[in-house]
Design goal:
Helices cover 50% and strands 14% of the residues. The chain is an alpha+beta fold and 288 residues long. The longest helix is centred in the last third of the chain and has 27 residues. It is extended, with a radius of gyration of 27 Å.
Length: 288
């Protein structure tokens, strides 16, 4: 039977919903299969973990098209891994090392998650974190327009027109191939982190009211940028920021805990292999 176009509604509901946590169902058994491929059974739990990773990568998006794509990728992963087994690649030295590393990563992430759940975060700690963020002055946001064209020569011609007094918004409406062209290239207010690195670097060096004197290249094409204004982004109200602050404090506590665990671990280095550059700020490695 062809598997790549099976209806996935039940599988996806099990993958991303919480119903199974509220009510025990036969279909939620760890032995529940999503498919048997070439005689080998594969559990729904494995697909669930695979699919949730795709949901996280796509910032929570869960559409029928993405569900089908994830299922097809999962089937591809199965048949490719079966080919690896047929070739006896599990005995390959690098594969053995990679499998051990992946196991370490999974256990590490699970342990960090469990530790984070156990860590109590007080209101005083949240307020201290919030005050520190406010004291740092927040992020700088930019308001800008841009013109996106396919080649550098065209961008240079547009810059020459701007040098002669042409209106930036009108040029954007006529020449920009980007989705904001119809709006005169208006990007509104944004954090530079939202932009690709080359664009963010270019605009960080500009002054309000200026435009880029040389075209800026990104994977989308060539940009001419007009920086209109900058402002300091105010942090959200304390109550609104609590979830993010809680995560921030937990990460800080986890980092401190990992350092403590490392310092207390008994570490016997193979000094013939591991060369350590002395660091006066680092704790000494314990030796017998």
């Amino acid at each position: 039977m062809k598997l790549s176009r099976l209806p996935l509604v039940l599988c996806i509901a099990l993958a991303v919903g919480n119903a199974w946590a509220e009510e025990k169902k036969e279909s939620d058994s760890p032995d529940t299969l999503i498919a048997t491929v070439n005689g080998t059974p594969y559990q729904l739990d494995v697909f669930r973990v695979f699919y949730l990773s795709r949901v996280q990568q796509n910032q929570g998006e869960n559409t029928p098209a993405m569900q089908q794509q994830a299922f097809d990728e999962f089937m591809g992963l199965i048949v490719a891994s079966q080919e690896g087994e047929r070739r006896k690649l599990e005995a390959d030295r690098n594969v053995i090392a990679a499998l051990k590393l992946e196991r370490m990563k999974v256990l590490s992430n699970a342990a960090l998650g469990a530790m984070a759940q156990e860590m109590k975060v007080t209101d005083d700690e949240l307020k201290a974190a919030y005050d520190k963020i406010k004291a740092q002055g927040g992020r700088t946001e930019f308001k800008a327009r841009h013109i996106l064209v396919k080649d550098e020569d065209e961008a240079k011609k547009l810059i020459k027109q701007l040098d002669k007094g042409a209106d930036f918004a009108e040029l954007a409406k006529k020449h920009s191939t980007g989705p904001t062209g119809k709006d005169g290239g208006d990007l509104g207010w944004f954090d530079p982190k939202q932009m690709v690195p080359a664009f963010a670097t270019a605009i960080a060096d500009m002054k309000p009211g200026s435009y880029s004197k040389t075209p800026v290249q990104t994977q989308f094409g060539w940009h001419v940028i007009n920086l209109q204004e900058t402002r300091k982004a105010e942090p959200p109200p304390f109550d609104d920021a609590k979830p993010q602050l809680t995560a921030l404090v937990q990460r800080q506590k986890l980092s401190e805990k990992i350092v403590e665990m490392r310092n207390n671990a008994k570490i016997d280095l193979n000094e013939a292999i591991v060369k350590i550059t002395p660091n006066k700020d680092a704790p000494a490695v314990k030796k017998d």
